[in-house]
Amino acid sequence: MSWYKRIDAALVTGLLLGSGGVLLSLLGNPANSGICVSCFMENLAGALQLHPNVRMSYIRPELIGFVLGSFLVAARTRRFRVTGGSSPLVRFFLGFFIILGCSVFIGCPIKMLQRLGSGDLTAVAATLGLVFGVWLGAKYIRKGTFLDREKEMPRINGYMMPLLALLMLLFLLMQPGFIRLGAAGPAAMRAPLLVSLGIGLVIGGFAQRSGLCITGGIRNYFLVRETTLLSGVLAALGSAFLVSLATGQFHFGMNGQPASHLNHGWTFLAMTLVGLASVIIDGCPFRQLIKAGQGDIDAAIASFGMLAGAAVAISWSLQSTSAGPSFGGKISVLTGLAFSIVVVMTYRHRTGTTR
Amino acid sequence: MIGYNSMDWLDKINITILAGLVAVTMAMLVQHGLAARQHGGVAISAEKELQRAYREQAARDAQLFKNVRLLREQGKTSQALASLKEIMKAHPGNPHAFVVQARLDLAGGSLTDAIANFRKAVDARPEYVDRKTPFYIGKEIETVVTEALEKLPRERKLKPDDRNIAIAMKNVYYLQRRLAGGCE
């Protein structure tokens, strides 16, 4: 694909992500949380009864849409390539810690952009933390850190995630007894199912086409001053700002922001963890889902790590509340950062050319 | 893909078993779905059940604290407070006691105590700021928060070292964030 087509695709994906998130909030999703992969993973874990908080239990159709949209476009454009086998357990635990970091900030990088675009100044520390984490990751890449290469795998592996997404859709529609959907709290804040699914599918399809990734866009800029994906990230921020303003959801300031807290130091550290770990596994939480849909088994393993992290975050009360981060949340951020540093040290290729 | 004619006997058995398994699973799912629909739908009835439980609890709370409310409305704040303390002894851990206490604090002119008790109430029962439940008292809390946001910063300027005002401001901002909603 030529560069101008890619920049268009990244821009369109960014515009869809930013405006779609704000619109989903307007249509019923929690405030400033129209699209949030970490929150939605926590909801999914609850719906599957992997944690006990019924207020955080729902199968978000947007998640299903991301995976299926990516799969459909990849299959149609012959970009469905089944690869995997690159340090699966390391990816699992990095995905796990990414969600723990997100839960201390209360949001993934996409929600961070939405919060920033809606005037939430508590997201400034998160943005600085994420950029710092990605910058660190880029430095490690330059110094020779990268995970081992993936291999081609039998095609059936690639169909697993789209099939699981379809199964989740079936569970959502049929609501068997073992699926628990909350009737109060954030779980009950839902945009209409078809709208959520439709927006998820469209964004999933465009994200597959463009390769848009919040941390990837920043990483590419730090590594090679390449701005294609970064333009999509900025488009997401800009469109979130404009649509928030147009729909009366813009509230500028530090206080009174939905699902936020004022512990900026821990927010910074938590998003540093998210940025660094995302660079190591080559993609933010959203990108992991998109890649899982297009046949990337390593991303699917990271997604399962994210689901496990989401379950643990709620079960062990590691997530922050409006009162601030919990003790367990702080420990999990520090542990995640330590784990990430051990990984980058272990995978550093010191011999040969110095990058 | 291989054609049926080019399959060996093992492939053919596998395909037959697979078709049988899919058919039986689908039949069981359809039958289960029909049975659930006859009973009003599993999830729908669970949601209705929860809403019914919420309504019943709200009615029990209203009945339990009725005397305190009546005394407060008659302006007998100290008697209302004594009655509330008795109820709290007999029914410890009822989150509605914090709401009743906050209303008494307001009647007694103590805004900071009211704010602190509303915070305790929301922490103990998040449904107080959830529009979809009968417990919702978000508008009432919002009114108190708005009043506090007007008064407390002025008081803080006059008494910058007063720790109680600083704590009250923290509680106000906390309630403001909870009222704003979000994924929490």
Q: What secondary-structure arrangement, pairings included, does this model have?
A:
The complex is a heterodimer of chains A (355) and B (184).
Chain A: H1 3-26, H2 37-47, H3 61-76, E1 83-84, H4 88-105, H5 109-117, H6 123-142, E2 151-152, H7 155-174, H8 193-210, H9 214-224, H10 228-246, H11 264-280, H12 285-293, H13 297-315, H14 327-346
Chain B: H1 9-38, H2 42-64, H3 66-73, H4 77-90, H5 96-107, H6 111-124, H7 138-158, H8 163-180
Helix pairs in contact in B: 3-4, 4-5, 5-6, 6-7, 6-8, 7-8
Secondary-structure element order of chain A, as H and E? HHHEHHHEHHHHHHHH
Radius of gyration of chain B: 28 Å
What's the overall average pLDDT of chain A, rounded?
94
Number of helices of chain B: 8
Q: Do you know the CATH architecture of the largest domain in chain B? A: Alpha Horseshoe
* Overall outline of chain B: elongated
Query: Approximately how much helix is present in the residues of chain A?
Result: 55-70%
> Can you tell me the residue ranges of chain A where pLDDT is under 50 for at least 5 consecutive residues?
none
Main sheet characteristics of chain A? 2 strands, antiparallel
| Integer tally of domains of chain A | 1
Structural class of chain B: mainly alpha
Mean pLDDT of chain B: 89
Number of strands of chain A: 2
**Quaternary status of these chains?**
heterodimer
How would you characterize the largest beta sheet of chain B?
Answer: none
What is the strand content of chain B?
Answer: under 5%
CATH level-four homologous superfamily name of the largest domain in chain B: Tetratricopeptide repeat domain
Largest interface by residue count? A-B, 35 and 28 residues
- The secondary-structure element order of chain B is HHHHHHHH
What is the rounded distance between the termini of chain B?
49 Å
Structural class of chain A: mainly alpha
